[in-house]
């Protein structure tokens, strides 16, 4: 395969601990190892107030560029300085932009300046179910997306959505996970406490407020043998700290790095994901690579990985009763038959290895990039 020169573009600072930023660093590192030239253009902007900065892990020969950004006066994401992008494009064969609205609209207006193959990466999408502003913006979003030569999506909902709206070059390639790094956890009977893990940004989109409701409701009939372990940072951090102080069976670790997160997975028996909006959560793939079942919201991204009754449970958004009942079912299984529980863990991990290992996913991305360059 010929060497590619790829420039990734994001309006978000790389130190922000989001899933898309982690994906970008992982993919850039793996492409560089495979002999491709890689650059990243990013800004200093972060989507929400947080004091947390993730350590950026990239090879020295991945070129990093910073540019100015404009924060729109309405609710939305920052937009990349298109003139900074235009100055770099002659050094690259392909531009891959992580599209956070309204960046796709700006690309439409400046398309004549960007005389390169453009791929739009949809790692999160408009919340059309519950956000009126997003529904109003949708026609403009679709108008802007027509400027891209191809669209990369992470889940089936986004694939079907764009195809139904007349887009042809839409490619579904999921997130990946290093299954050698996230290994099968120890047998679940090596613990006296059943541990339910929540790991992610403490935001409304990630359902951190729903998590609090679940903990409070579970308290009414689940005993102290069930513990809630929470990691992450974000706007709802104070509320999480308060409930950890209120209940002895709730432990909040704050934001933790990658190495410590792997240790936390080994302590857990179940991952809880009550999100309202996802592309394809890396935390689900990491947890399942460690063999953990997932109890999550029945929304795009999660339903692509979690099959109800097989490797986890899917619940209607905000169904606190259902989430607690599912936690109780897994707790009783662990209590009654830890051997059966461990067999389930091995089956869960096997599926992740077969479908989501990074070695498989990076090959698909590489083929997509090569195809688009040759158009």
What do these coordinates show?
Helix content is 38%, strand content 17%. By secondary structure, the chain is an alpha/beta fold. It has 2 domains: 5-176 and 357-374, 3-Layer(aba) Sandwich (Rossmann fold); 194-356, Glycogen Phosphorylase B (Rossmann fold), CATH 3.40.50. It is globular.
Keywords, separated by commas or semicolons:
single chain; 375 residues; alpha/beta; Rossmann fold; 7-stranded parallel β-sheet; 6-stranded parallel β-sheet; 15 strands; 38% helix
What is the CATH architecture assignment of the largest domain?
Answer: 3-Layer(aba) Sandwich
- The percent range for helix content is 25-40%
Order of secondary-structure elements: EHEEEEHEHEHEHEEHEHEHEHEEHHH
User: Could you say which overall geometry the principal axes of the C-alpha atoms support?
Assistant: globular
Question: From the helix content, strand content and strand pairing, which structural class follows?
Answer: alpha/beta
What portion of the residues fall into strands of 2 or more residues? 15-25%
Ranges where pLDDT stays below 50 over 5 or more residues in a row are: none
- The Rg value, from CA coordinates, equals 21 Å
Oligomer: single chain
CATH class of the largest domain, please? Alpha Beta
* DSSP strand tally: 15
**How much is the average pLDDT?**
90
Helices and strands, with pairings:
Layout lengths: L4 E5 L9 H15 L3 E6 L20 E4 L2 E2 L8 E2 L1 H7 L5 E5 L4 H7 L7 E6 L9 H14 L4 E4 L2 H9 L5 E3 L21 E6 L8 H11 L7 E6 L5 H10 L3 E3 L5 H10 L2 E4 L8 H8 L4 E4 L14 E4 L4 H17 L1 H19 L1 H17 L1
Parallel strand pairs: 1-2, 1-6, 2-3, 6-7, 7-8, 8-9, 10-11, 10-13, 11-12, 13-14, 14-15
Antiparallel strand pairs: 4-5
Helix pairs in contact: 3-4, 6-10, 10-11
